[in-house]
Amino acid sequence: MATTQDLKRRVRSITNTRKVTKAMELVASARLRRSQQRIEAMRPYADRMLELMAGVSQAAGAVRLPLLERRENVERVAIIPITADRGLAGGFNAQVIRRSLALLREVEGNGQQAVWFSTGRKAASTLRFRRMNVSQSWVGFSERPAYSDAQAIAHAVSEAYVNKDIDRVVIVYNAFVSALVQKVTVRDLLPVPQDLLDKAAEAEEDSFGGTPDFIYEPEPEEILARLLPVYVETELYRALLESAASEQGARMTAMRNASKAAGELIDSLTLAMNRARQAEITQEILEVVAGADALNG
Q1: Fewer CB atoms inside 10 Å of the end CB: C or N, the chain?
Q2: 3-class DSSP state for residue 176?
Q3: What's the alpha-carbon Rg for the chain, to the nearest Å?
Q4: In whole angstroms, what is the distance from residue 209 CA to residue 52 CA?
């Protein structure tokens, strides 16, 4: 049985740990508000960008652009898991990596080869440990990504797609729903999914009350050629912002649960410590009474 001193040390240690988790919860809460504001401001822009590209694509008709090319024989699939640089965020990183590995099994089951482009130290370290084929990885900006970070990733994957080093690009990330809910999302980035273009075109028609009749200057083909790289950058930037907000929400929730568990453990240990102290006092009283009886006898 643990002594009173052992229990005191454990209570002191857990109390210090709770102070750390409480501080991390407050920091994550403050960062979450900023990250949430950024993604809420970004979503309408990204949706409008897709609608614009869908409208121009319809006006351009059948055009042959490298980023729109749909290949009949898909041999190499690029998977981009977007994770955090740090842990202590519950299952935030694990669920993205788990879904990415499940996607890997699907790709290999179709007789295709997976090529990895990772963001975040957690994904990079996991893929290195599993000895995966990692083409490029980016770290150091998971909590506050900049547009230039998305541009770097977009340039790398777009160049690989145009050069036919890869035939399909898929991103896996946590979409931000609320501080308590983060939804793992798998999204095709390249080639641009036709169903997304159709939905965006329908949304544009609804907003204008019918098919809009625009006069394009320059020609729609040239506008579309300029829009496509920006679309890829925008979608990646959106995914990075979604992941950043999700990371802070997951960390805030995890630290809150850790603080709660620490408080319950402190209460349990305090109760055990009081019982141990009472047992020691009772033992001392019995020894004193036994000694007195021995002297009187």
Answers
A1: C
A2: strand
A3: 29
A4: 16
d(Cα 245, Cα 29) in Å, to the nearest integer? 10
Helix 92-109 / helix 121-129 crossing angle, nearest 10 deg: 50
Q: Are 121 and 85 in contact (CB under 8 A)?
A: yes
SS3 190: strand
Q: How far apart are CA 111 and CA 114, in angstroms?
A: 10
Of 153-162, 192-201, 215-224, 285-294, the one with minimum mean pLDDT is 192-201
The answer to whether 186 and 174 are in contact (CB under 8 A) is no
pTM: 0.83
The separation between the first and the last C-alpha atoms of the chain, rounded to the nearest angstrom, is 34
Please report, as a single letter, which amino acid is at residue 57.
S
Residue 252: Cβ-neighbour burial (10 angstroms; 0-12, 13-18, 19+): buried
* Helix, strand, coil % in the chain, rounded to nearest 5: 65, 10, 20
Q: Which residue, 204, 229, 188, is CA-closest to 70?
A: 188
Please state, rounded to an integer, the average pLDDT across all residues of the chain. 85
How far apart CA 89 and CA 242 sit, in angstroms, is 15
| Separation between Cα atoms, residue 98 and residue 227, nearest integer Å | 33
Q: How far apart are CA 127 and CA 149, in angstroms?
A: 21
| Structure confidence at residue 208 (pLDDT) | 52
Q: What is the DSSP string of 218-275?
A: S-HHHHHHHHHHHHHHHHHHHHHHHHHHHHHHHHHHHHHHHHHHHHHHHHHHHHHHHH
Question: In whole angstroms, what is the distance from residue 230 CA to residue 204 CA?
Answer: 19
